[in-house]
Write a structure and sequence with these properties.
Elements (H helix, E strand, L loop, with lengths): L10 H10 L3 E10 L4 E10 L8 H6 L25
Antiparallel strand pairs: 1-2
């Protein structure tokens, strides 16, 4: 899932939902200019396959997603944009 945003860090939201459904989520960022920290796109990959992130191409690119303290799962009735502001 592409989650590119200058203002929101949506990775933790997706990772929490994945974990609650017994899946694993990892972040992949395609950087355009590492000196300026500009990036072209940010992705979250979610899988239920235990060894999926052991594939060489993913092992080199995928990174863990940092949890946000106190974050709870988003639902139709609850979300908190302040918790994911960059």
């Amino acid at each position: 899932m592409r989650i590119t945003s200058r203002y929101l860090s949506l990775g933790p939201v997706i990772a929490l939902e994945a974990a609650e459904n017994h899946k694993r989520a990892m972040r992949v960022v395609y950087e355009l200019d590492t000196e300026k920290h500009e990036f072209l796109s940010e992705w979250v990959l979610v899988t239920s396959r235990p060894r999926f992130f052991n594939l060489p191409v993913l092992a080199a690119a995928a990174r863990p997603i940092n949890a946000v303290t106190g974050m709870r799962t988003w639902t139709d009735d609850y979300s908190n944009l302040y918790s994911v502001l960059r």
